[in-house]
Design a protein that fits this description.
Length: 417
């Protein structure tokens, strides 16, 4: 099953400056102004590698990488190991602690049922990541995956390591504290490797990067380039870790008029509808967490609560029961497609659809006229992610938002030999 091995990591040295100023968020959530701010803080920020700019930006990333290697800003570990990565944060007044491990995982086709996806991907994003890998021969960011360890053996090893002095520890601008340790002990590494040897891994975040790694491996098979493309860097987290937090991703309707009266009329066959004051929105969604409940907001001081009727539950487009039971699948099929006429191609190309994890941003977007309406939903559960993946199915895009995001640049993987 899952083939795990230690990583001989590429990391920033003291020459690079404060590590907190060298790392960055995932490339796909960084705006142009945020990129500039990161570099202004430290010219050695990894965003220059992960999100390069210029006419030949991938070649530029390769030049920057070589420059940093030659100057000693970056250096590769002499001793391989598995890194323990912890994030401590607060959501809604509650403290959380998430602990994972950064290692190399052997690439497998999804058809082998060893590493399982849960979301659809976009071709354009995969081509961008492939070009970057070809230009640099590195993984700068880690794929985020989940595993199950009923024995608790891995949790025990990680917990023991976190009682030692860390390699680094810092708190970012979102008040998330990131801490890193390294396991080099051969016995403990062997326990981790053997424990995961009969497990499946479930991709939580990084589907595009995983598929890109598969494409990179295939591309190198037809060349003589020296590289180890058989493994990819992952951060693995126990599916039962109490620090796992998944945010909902709300849907914004743009460049399309939406009539509240028409929407209610088209949905009344499948949904119970109720108009409530806006101040009750969060509570109403929370109360309907297990009842396929949605909030439709089109401006003003109230919203429409839609709750799926029991009689409406059915298999969606011949998909699995796990897929058909997802809030996001029901919203897309019953409401966006059937009621609003926004088809799958439209959604995939984001013609009339935008996304946000912030309820406040969704509401403000409608109030300001940036969006004509918003559909606010509850978060997908980790158990549902596993069920969809095991069913061999995939969720619609932007179905999950794992929080907090992993920092890019703490640990990097060199693919070149």
């Amino acid at each position: 099953m899952a083939g795990i091995k230690p990583i001989k990591a590429l990391r920033f040295t003291e020459k690079a400056g404060n590590i907190a100023d060298c790392v960055c968020p995932p490339y796909d959530i960084i705006s142009e102004s945020e990129r500039e701010a990161l570099i202004a803080r430290n010219e050695n920020n990894v965003v220059r590698l992960e999100l390069p700019v210029g006419e030949d930006r991938y070649k530029e990333a390769g030049k920057t990488l070589n420059s940093w290697l030659n100057s000693g800003v970056l250096a590769r570990d002499e001793q391989e190991g598995i890194y323990v990565y912890r994030e401590e944060f607060n959501v809604g007044g509650k403290d959380y602690c998430l602990t994972g491990m950064i290692c190399l995982v052997q690439l497998c086709e999804f058809s082998e049922r060893i590493i399982l996806p849960h979301e659809e991907t976009l071709t354009k994003a995969k081509q961008d990541r492939l070009n970057l890998m070809m230009g640099t021969g590195c993984n700068f960011s880690s794929i985020y995956s989940l595993y199950s360890d009923e024995s608790g053996d891995i949790a025990g090893i990680l917990d023991e390591k976190t009682k030692e002095s860390p390699i680094c520890r810092f708190t970012d601008e979102e008040e998330v504290t990131h801490t890193l340790w390294k396991i080099e002990d051969a016995g403990k590494l062997g326990v981790i490797i053997n424990t995961l040897a009969d497990k499946q891994l479930f991709i939580a975040d990084g589907h595009h990067r995983y598929e890109t790694a598969l494409n990179y491996k295939k591309a190198l098979e037809s060349t003589t380039a020296g590289a180890d493309a058989s493994h990819v860097m992952m951060t693995l987290v126990d599916m039962d870790d109490k620090g796992l937090v998944v945010f909902p991703t709300h849907r914004l309707i743009v460049d399309k008029s939406v009539s509240r009266e028409e929407l209610i009329a088209k949905c009344e066959k499948d949904f119970e509808t109720k108009t409530l004051p806006l101040c009750e929105l969060k509570g109403a969604l929370a109360d309907g967490e297990d009842a396929h409940t949605y909030a439709f907001y089109d401006g003003g001081d109230d919203f429409v609560l839609l709750t799926l009727k029991e009689s409406a539950k059915r298999n969606i487009d011949g998909r699995s029961d796990a897929y058909s039971d997802l809030d996001v699948s029901i919203l897309h099929s019953f409401v966006l497609e059937n009621a609003l006429g926004i088809d799958k191609e439209n959604m995939a190309n984001q013609i009339n659809l935008r996304y946000t994890r912030s309820m406040d941003e969704a509401i403000e977007s409608v109030k300001s006229g940036k969006a004509t309406a918003a559909f606010l939903i509850n978060a997908t559960k980790v158990s549902q992610i596993k069920a969809v993946a095991l069913a061999g199915d995939k969720m619609p895009q932007k179905s999950t938002y794992f929080y907090p995001k992993l920092k890019t640049g703490l640990v990097m993987n060199v693919l070149k030999k």
